[in-house]
Amino acid sequence: MLTPQTIAVIGAGPAGLAAAESLSSDGFDVVVYDQMPSPARKFLMAGRSGLNLTHAEDLDKFLTRYGTAASWLEPMIRAYPPQALRQWAEALGQPCFTGSSGRVFPEAMKASPLLRAWLARLAERNTRFELRHRWAGWDEAGSLLFETPQGKKAVTAAATVLALGGASWPRLGSDGGWTRFLPPESLTPLQPANCGFITGLPPAFHEQFHGEVLHSITISGAGQSARGDVTITRQGIEGAPVYRLSSLWRDALQREGRLQIRLDLRPGMTQQVLQSRLEGFRARESQSGKLRRLGLSPAARWLLREATPAHAGADRLAQGIKSCPLDLISPDSLARAISTAGGIRREALDDGLMVRQRPGVFVAGEMLDWEAPTGGYLLQACFATGRHAAQGVKNHLRQNP
Predict the structure, then answer these.
(1) Is 245 helix (H, G, I), strand (E, B) or coil?
(2) Which of 165, 160, 194 is nearest to 30 (CA)?
């Protein structure tokens, strides 16, 4: 039963559940709606790789990870900083630890125990869930519309928090369908973030080496470099160093249409050392054999054959190993991205994250126009903006009882 103080939270991911928890702790009647059969499916997926909740680095440095959105997000994250998120998890019976890279994880290294405890706390506070409810905008009277297995349903609430996510991993519920219900001028188009890229290599390369890993290489492009493992996909490349540079590369591709990056296939050896090693091999040994003896994988040798003449000398081969060119054509699909850039613009919202054209409607999480690298920054901002939107609801209802 809805009461005059019922708050509708649409989206049962971290931002929506954080908003629901904050509101229910202050005695509001909260109903959480989600189109999926169970809550927080993307959160559970993130937990399969260890659930990187946040990061332990200095907060001033932490805030720089949000790029141009840092000034917007700063007061929200300072109000709910990484230490607060860690204490929250530990209060739910999930102690955390800091890894060697500074990333913070629950000791259980998965999301399910934390989510179960969180949902139990919400149930104790009488937060209700309406699942298999797909939001379909508003009717003429301003009521929320939902598509359900039983048909269309209209709901009236004192205030609404929208936390429907971006458009990455749509099979888990965040498909970006909400964009059609908000004014186009309030939106920055959704784009892939923390994503892979499509290369200009022949399809035969990707067919042969799909799933192979170029271990511990350095990639450079658009003025930045990153080191780590790069995985070859059916059309392109992906991996942690690719994700770290993805926003720069995406923007460069938008400006120029094509981007050439460089691969250092042996970052632990200088070009001079490589040349000396190559010159020391027998003159009759094949190029492929020499490269194999340097520890280069079949995929790396293929890339070098494409980039260097058939009978290149030791100097040219060493140069190619340290700076192998690779053309990128476009980011991989939004559906395959880890997260989403774009969303509702800052100017379309007030300081409490309320939509200016929709009084009483607040927004949180990846629906907002920001992006961040992996490493705990994504979840931290989702929790912080969810709680900030909840505070916006409380302030709004105090001023407009």
Answers:
(1) helix
(2) 160
CA distance 38 to 45: 13
Q: Convert the pLDDT of each residue in 35-71 to its tens digit.
A: 999 999 999 998 887 899 999 999 999 999 999 999 9
CA separation for the pair 51, 115 (Å, rounded) = 11
pLDDT score of 4 more than 80: no
Phi and psi at 268, nearest 5°, equal -85, 0
d(CA 356, CA 354) in angstroms, rounded, equals 6
Closest CA to 236 of 193, 199, 211: 199
Give the C-alpha separation, 25 to 31, whole Å.
13
pLDDT tens track for 355-391: 999 999 999 999 999 999 999 999 999 999 999 999 9
C-alpha–C-alpha distance, residues 230 and 232, integer Å: 7
Per the structure block, which two tokens stand in for 208? 């042969």
Q: CA 231 → CA 300, 336, 342, distances in Å? A: 12, 14, 26
Cβ–Cβ under 8 Å, residues 59 and 34? no
